[in-house]
Amino acid sequence: MFTVNYKDLRLSFNEFHNVSDKDMPQYGEYCLLELKNGDYTAGSWSPDDYNNKKSTSGKFIRGTADTVDSEEVERWHSLERYDLTECLEDEEIDWINLGHEEEGGRSVQFEGFKSFADKKKPKEEQFCLLIMKDGSLAAGRWNKWRHEAGGAFIYAPALGSHSSDEVWAWTPLSTDQFFAMELERENEKKQEKKLNKNPSADPELFRYGMDINAYYEKALEKLREEFYWATVTMMKKQTPVWQIAPLHGKYVFCQIEKSYYDDSDIVIPWEQGATADEFVDFLCGYARDAVKKSNPEEKFKFGTDINVYLEKAFSNVKKDYRWLDKKMLKNGWRYDIRKVDGDLEFVRKYRNEREYSVYDVESAERFIECVEHDYRSAALQANETVASYEPSFGHISLHGWNLERYVFYKLKSGDYKVSVTAGDRTTGGSRDFFITPYCFEAKTYEEFLDRYLEIVPAGSFGLGKKELLPDEKLKKFLGY
Fold it and tell me: Starting from the edge strand earliest in sequence, which strands make up the sheet with 10-13, in order?
């Protein structure tokens, strides 16, 4: 590794190019930028008119939705043409000139370099000048990784970045709006933490104490007047649940969500009243639907033996999926009825998962329908395909997605299914649909399509009667 002491190192940038002289970098060239307000940043040049070499109109790209307009830039200096390896391997060097130093010319010096090797990290969103481990120069905006050590310097759209493992030393460039916003947010968090060290509690609001369960119990008493089966567990199915937490130096009734940005807590206070009894009344209304849908007489109307429900689901699916065998279900979902926090619940786990999770449904019929869906998927997976036919189609847009594939398959059992795939520039998805025997009871191909399109409607999946009816090869493939 390099032997230069980065703590004493100074980089002097000379030979800046003036934007006012219509002297612009090559398209995509990454540059150190001196702004008209005296700040320093960096970015890759993206002209508005790629064919006009003298045009100064465009922007310097720093990342996704992170650019500097050329009108803000006074001068630029390329970062791409240097390899500092030879200099950095000489331990006596502490000053490196980048470009010829001319009398009266513009030079800018950067120092105060730090290293990840010394456990030093930039502040979040701080834009930095980088010396890479391969001796090159770069820049980027620091983003720490959310769930592991380290981070990366973002320098291009779509999160193009330099990993911290690739950087030998770094030093901050000027504060910009994004970093300023981050500093303000951090200051607000520090102030909030300070205020919440000794929060106060309004005696009217917290008349029944500081345990949120006391308020759930009060609300439960009222709910049981209408729903005798109500429990606190049922009430808390209505999520997010309510809590008591400090906010701006005062305790509040609130819901707490995790920030996607940094996993910090976002406290959302209750603001519909000012007294404990008003909150209890609110809690009754908030949890009412969850309790109403948890009637054990509806959920467990066929008893508490899970096999009764599974047999009903199996029998229903078997009517159409004639090849279904219980051996096909062994590697799929496992179901049970168990007590969770004192209440009976349908639960399930997949294959070799250790723990069951609550399968929250409001009725026995709904649970059976869900199991049927799982059984149908297992049946299709177990039935091998023996032939396929793909109708031709042009460009078809489906609610912002584009139809990519539409394939009919004949299964080993003699049945048929269709697989539909659609997507946009960044994502996509596929679905399989079993073509039920009812469809094939139709005497004509046209009647078959009428029944088929009730399962795979044209408005949702791309192809309709207009496209499928004239397709003689498809007609023959389906046995008509």
Answer: 95-98, 10-13, 108-110
